[in-house]
Amino acid sequence: PTATRRVRTTVRVGVGVLVAVPNRPGHVYAGVRKGSHGSGTLALPGGHLEMYESWEDCAKREVLEEMNLELTDLTFGHVTNDPMRDEEKHYVTIFLMARPRDESVEPKTMEPDKCEGWKAYSWEQLKAFLSMGVGVEEGTPRLFGPLKRLVAEDPEAVLSYIQATKT
């Protein structure tokens, strides 16, 4: 008898958060994923939208769970359609932009089994990782699917937000 794999036939909703880095104008936090789909790729903090949860509440919950940061000034950034055929998954990812409520608090890696740690990246660095392709240079992170699509789409709202954090 051959085993059959059950393929999920529903599209899931993810929320990704561009958290501005207070002491690094024009930078956002990202970390390398561990132990899940996209393992080894660079991603923003975020996760699944729960039933009846607002996008903002999801963003606040996920960033608190993953980074131990409380957020303020949440605004909509962009949405991407993220089919991941190789992993038999499909997401729609809602990206929100926010700042830490207490700008003196550094992020902590609260889920070390899911993330290697949080570092500051500029949009230009993320664009450079995108243009390098996959595994071109040792030590250069690949972007997680939704972040890769976000960077490739270069949305005006996100660019304006990142530019505004530089001043």
Quickly list its features:
167 residues; alpha/beta; four-stranded mixed sheet; 4 helices; globular
Account of the 3D structure:
The chain has helices at 55-67, 123-132, 145-153, 156-164, and strands spanning 12-19, 27-33, 41-43, 46-48, 71-84, 89-100, 115-122, 142-143. It is an alpha/beta fold and 167 residues long. The longest helix is centred in the middle third of the chain and has 13 residues, at 55-67. The chain is globular and about 55 Å long. It starts with 11 loop residues before the first strand and ends with a helix.
SSE blueprint and pairings:
Blueprint: E1 12-19, E2 27-33, E3 41-43, E4 46-48, H1 55-67, E5 71-84, E6 89-100, E7 115-122, H2 123-132, E8 142-143, H3 145-153, H4 156-164
Parallel strand pairs: 1-6, 3-8
Antiparallel strand pairs: 1-4, 2-3, 2-7, 5-6
